[in-house]
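QA checklist item 7 of 12: single-chain prediction sanity check.
[x] sequence parsed
[x] length recorded as 284
[x] structure emitted
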Amino acid sequence: MSSTISGTRPRRKAPSTLVLGLSRIGYETRLYFRSPDTLFFTFFFPFIMLGIFTAAFSASGNIGGGADGTGGVSVGAYYLPGMLAAGMLLSGVQNLAVDIAGEKSDGTLKRLGGTPLSPLSYFLGKIGQVFVTAILQASLLLLVARFVLDISLPTEPEKWATFAWVFVFGVITSAFLGIALASVPRSGKSATAVVIPVVLVLQFISGVYLQFTALPEWMQNLAGVFPLKWMAQGMRSVFLPDSFAVAEQTGSWDLVWVAGALGAWLVVGLVLSRVTFRWIRRDA
């Protein structure tokens, strides 16, 4: 009553952290799909690699079959789990690390720091964008695998339940690690030179492009320190026959270890992303 009489308007309540974060998801997703280089190197890259491997090695027959050439799985089916895991890593680590480093360099983060947007809302926007694009990427990759490459997909509900938790753990972990890794490049221009080699090496030593047990033991142990190895192993447990588990380092899918490793890296990524994140560089 008194505010009406005095002619002052009641103050509008500021948007909550959650509302701001959710509003950023749509904005970040639109920016993602408007960037041709990001689309090529993160969204479509697993499709390209799956197509290359399928075309290059299909003539040699199925993988894991008998001496008479029967049994086993097609080349496309063998590489599909690795491409799904690589897509999760690219959508989170590579995409966010390069993107955020660029935003630091061009002053975008400095400007955002002067707005009501909190770091948590910013994180929600980035992670939400990664989830949206990773879900679209995985869905399209599975559709291409089934209807273009004629790859049989699992029918057991428990397999898809495993896919769901490995995917969620992997995407969130990759997103947090991408935010943390963005603090390493000194500028936006150097971000791709810093981030892409790291991501590429991890793909080669984690069983994405090469059979994991064909790698030297020291390299297998090194890959086991990082999350991509466990993401790829979890995906192989979903899309490959159980007989392929003997080709893993311990001779089994070790899903408990997959969950533990991804959970541990999720916590590490969360802590590192929050500790290292700044609206502006300290040395700026």
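[x] summary fact logged: Residues 1-6 have pLDDT under 50 and may be disordered.
[ ] second reviewer sign-off
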